Every structure is written in C-alpha cells, then in structure tokens.
Amino acid sequence: MNRFLNLAIGLAILFTSCKNEKETTIATKEQQPMNILFIAVDDLRPELNFYGANHMQSPNLDKLADESLVFDRAYCNIPVCGASRASLLTGLRPTRHRFINYSTRADKDAPQAVSLPNFFKQNGYTTISNGKIYHKRNDDSLAWDNIWFPKGNIRDYQLEKNRIENGDANLAVAGAAAFEMAEVDDTAYFDGEIAQKGIADLKMLANKKQPFFLALGFMKPHLPFNAPKKYWDLYDRAKIELPESYVQPKSTPKQAFHNFGELRNYGNVPKKGNLTEDLSKELIHGYYACVSYVDAQIGLVLDELKRLELEDDTIVVLWGDHGWNLGDHKLWSKHSTFETALKTPLIIKVPGKTKGQKTNAITEYVDIYPSLVELAGFDAPKNLEGQSFMPILNGEIPEKDWAVSKFKDAVTLIKGDLFYTEWTKDDGIAFARMLFDHKTDPLELDNLAEKPEYQETVNQLAKELRAKWGKDFFKIES
Q: Containing H/E element for 425?
C-alpha cells in the first residue's frame, strides 16, 4: 500500500513539475521586447502645462505627461535641428567639426556609428520613419525598413497668396508670411498627414509578431506658424505678453546675440531691428496655435495606440529637438546658448514604471540612446557618449549632474544652477565668456563671468568644460 501511495505522490510531483516547466516556457515565449513609439516635435519649447506654464492648451501632451517621467532639466546638445537630431540618434556629441548646422547628415559626419534606429533594426525590430526625424529625409537610410514624408512644399502653405509668393522655394522667401491662419481641416497640413500615417502604421504593426520602433517627426511649431484657424481661436491675443527677459543687457557678450535670420527671411518680418510689439504678439500667437495643433495630432496617435491595446507593450518617448526663443533676450528662433534655446521638453512613458513622476536631474540628449537600449533589455554599443537615465527611472540619484551644449564657437557647461559658456576657436582659448547663476538669475540677465569675485568659479568651470566636452572635440574627421 505504501509503495502504491509513494508512486502516486511521485507521479503527482512529476506532473506538477512538468506543468510548471511548460507554463514557464510558454510565458517566456510570449514575452516580447517592448515596442518604442518615438515622437519628435520640431522647435517645441518646454513651455507646457506640465512644466508649470498655464497659457498654452496641450491636453494630450498633459495627459501623456501624467503617465510618464517628466524631465524638468533636459538639454539638447546643439540648438539647431539637423545637428541636434544627428547627435541624439547616434549618441555622439557635437564637436567643432562634427554635427554643425541644420544640414548635418549623420551618415556623413559619423559614418561608422550604429544609429539608434539601426541598432533596433539589427535586433529584430521593424523600424519606420515618418515625417521629420533626421533633417535630411534619406539620411541613415539603411536604418529604416520604411521612410515616408508628406508630398508637397516644405513650407506647407494653404492660403493661395502665400503659395503664390512662396513659389517652388523650400526655404523661406521674401514674399511669403511667417504664419497663416487657414479655414482647413487638420489633415490639410503635414502634421495631420503624419498623424494619419502613424495611425495606419500602428494598425499594420499590431498584427505583426516583431517589435517595432515607430518614429513620428511632427513639423510644428517650426516656422512658418501655419495652423488651422480653430487652433488660433483658442487664444486671445490681447492677453499675450512679451517675455520678461525682453532685454539685451550690456554685460552679456555681443556674441550671444544674433539677427535671427531664420525669421528675417519671411516677407512680413523686417530685415533688421527689433520687431514691433504687435508683430511679436502675432508671432507668439501663431506659435501657441501650432503647439495646440500638433498636440491634437499626437493625441490621435496615442488614442489609437490605446485602442489597439498596444500601450501596455510600448515605450513612448517624446522630445523637442531644441528650445526656441519667443522674444527672450529680444531673440527669435534657436541658434544661441541661452537656456531658452537649449532646454527641451522630454517625457518618457514606460508601462508599469512611470505615472507622472518628475525629475530635476540634468539630462542631455546623448543620454536618450543608451537609455532606450537598456529599457529594451539590450547592451548599448560601447562608443556612446551619453549615460543611461535608468537610475532616474528606478528612483535613484544619477551619478552625472551636468550637460554640455554648443553652437558654433560657443560651448556651454550646465552644472547645478550654473550656466557657463565660452567662445573659443580651434586653439581652445576663450575670447568671450558668460556665466549665469539660475538660483538668483533664472532669466540670464546678469553675466557674472567678468566679475572679480567669480574668477575662481570661472576657472574651475573652464577646466570642467574642457574635461567634459568630449575627447573628439577638436578632431577633424578624415
């Protein structure tokens, strides 16, 4: 009797063991790598409700932020679109001779780099680029299974007057306006088309077993500030004010300012001098309208992600390629090393991990590549110059507490509350300097760099800047 009882118990244990092993095997097979929805927004300032502002309407971005980790101190590595995107997507810093301007190509400036999308493609992901991801549409073309961009003139005017005056020019020309308010549907402009293409791709990808890296590059609020009239109607221009920092102090080096040529090219903008208050407020109004327009398009994509039951399996990361001056320091556009040009919106939603947390940890855009790779469960390539922000996602204090950004001859070290900028040539010797303490001067109006009592601080920051701007800073690519 005992022998039969022992045999029965043994068979039961064996059955249970086999059952558990089978269940474990099935769970492992069903566990897929996380998808990545990679959303880029051109010229988006971190001037949104979830950053403490209350004058722009962006309900969909606000909702995404409530489900994400919000980076309160994220900085681009160079404030110009082509170079910023190439740097972010390769995980490499700009140097004096690499990633310079808007026309930068990653595949020419860093031909040996395995880009972020190419890394995921090599690891079994379907990779799709829609809209403006790289500045040049065919840059890094081998990284993508598919590249799509809306057909038509890049200025994307809908009003006949602007279309005629712009002609076939893809760059701004003398006649066409810097903004337009048109009675059209959302899909009339490129961003509406990009959203619809993203939605169609999500439907297609939902039926595939492969994980995906789906990149959507929205065009607004880049100039010209063109948006359907209903988004202009969200705002009362009489309530729009010029920024508090609408001043250029004499203590600030002249090299810090520019003539904002990107805006001057448009027909209704004077070629020199300060803009009138009325024109300034009209431009700000147009910028706000474009932010609300692109917010609505992103909302459609995120709604589809949820409808397809993909959101629990998809990391969503949203970023702007750099800041943008809206009259700050009497400047417009980017192309400077003031915080208004360097500080960027960055939010990341990780299913089961994020729920509206915020971090003040200093993060720079070269950190995005290694972070996404680690989140997906892979080892990052060895040559990346950023550091993963996974410790921040895990609620830890990161080791790195600094960022470095540059534009032309200016290089900025951001450390704690201090913003230190040097203008140098290839000899590395500073010919102008700028230091702001954001604890006492968040608007960057009091340059401390030449004050005697700050010379020890300046000397220390100068050493740190050189140690942190990257080992290849002066290298000329062969």
A: none
Boundaries of every domain in the chain: 32-403
Provide CB contacts within 8 A for 139, sequence distance 6+: 86, 105, 106, 107
Is residue 290 part of the annotated active site? The answer reads: no
Q: How far apart are CA 403 and CA 161, in angstroms?
A: 45
> Which numeric CATH code is attached to 32-403?
3.40.720.10
In sequence order, what are the residues at sequence separation of 6 or more whose Cβ sits closer than 8 angstroms to the Cβ of residue 143?
A: 115, 117, 118, 121, 127
- Which stretches of 167-255 are DSSP H helices? 190-205, 229-232
C-alpha distances in Å from residue 12, one per residue of 5, 21, 381: 11, 14, 48
The single residue of 76, 135, 222, 290 carrying the catalytic annotation is 135
Mapped onto helix, strand or coil, the DSSP state of residue 79 is: coil
Catalytic residue among 76, 81, 329, 335: 81
Look up the pTM and report it. 0.92
Contact yes or no for 412/421 (Cβ under 8 A)? yes
Name the residue among 200, 196, 204, 158 with its Cα closest to residue 177. 158
Task: Tell me the β-bridge partners of 36.
Answer: 213, 315
**Contact status, residue 436 vs residue 412, Cβ threshold 8 Å:** no
H or E element in which residue 346 lies: strand 346-349
pLDDT value for 173: 56
- For residue range 9-47, list pLDDT tens digits in order: 444 444 444 444 333 323 233 457 899 999 999 999 999
What's the pLDDT score for residue 170? 64
Is residue 351 within 8 Å of residue 312, measured between CB atoms?
yes
18: annotated active-site residue: no
Flag whether pLDDT at 407 surpasses 90. yes
Backbone torsions φ then ψ of 21, nearest 5 degrees: -65, -40
